[in-house]
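User: Quick sanity check before I run a bigger batch. Here is a single chain. Can you write out its predicted 3D structure?
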Amino acid sequence: MRICSLLPSTTEIICALGLSDSLVGITHECDYPSSIAALPAVTKSLIDHSNSSSREINTHISEAVHSGSGIYAIDNQLLDSLKPELILTQELCEVCAVAYSDVEQCVSTLTGEQTILSFEPSSVEDILDTIIHIGKYTGCESAAQTLVGQAHERITLVQERITPITSKPRVLALEWLDPLFTGGHWVPEMIEMAGGTSALGHVSKPSEEITYQNALDSQSDLIILMICGYDLEQTLTEFMKLKDTPLWRDYPGSVYVVNGSAYFSRPGPRIIDGIEILSEIINPSLFPRQKSKSDWRQIR
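Assistant: Done. Predicted structure follows.
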């Protein structure tokens, strides 16, 4: 089966199922595992953010979405030449990947026959169901069941260890810094699974824009910066640009940065690593550090 993945998360799922040899095309944002680096990218960004601030990026994206002009483009000619039989995409977020309507329009111009599988997970269990769904369709149901079973075992280990906790720290997860956005969808659930309480975000609900005062009023014990699409070093660079703004001058709690792109933004297998990272940050006495400094770091 010839597979084109239009999502970094489904690219990771396909590879985790042992189907990397079936991938014929990926997106310009697919960067894991490293074995897929040579595959042709069938998408590109229509907005150059290389020299933009967080505020400028947010403004550009908002204007593009509201005008209907789109943020990403598909190379129809390249995609057609790759002759995919299965195309994996999403309907969850136009900011994170090519819009589903754009995928449909593109596929209508392709030769041959293609199947589109689209996913819209909003919880951890939805993410694991996505793995099962892809596994069934590609003839890898046994591998999918094994992968999901291992994920449930890792979650259970965390859950068992936090059972004695009587007071759960309040955690404010931020997925953008200027303006501030809370972590949404599966992130509040991940926080709860790791032994914390989500200070503002709501389980299975989209991220929300908040003010500095909202963040201060949340009475969080700690803030975790898990910036969408950014690794830890990129996040740290953005934080340093904004560290003198009112929130960071007045916030009395601890602040952590994580690799948001790898472990929190993408609804794929490494979400489980994200839960384990959160458990080390939120309850260090119960979870001695095992993750690397490129995964998470305390900065205040």
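The first strand starts at residue 3 and ends at 5.

User: Great, the batch can go ahead then.
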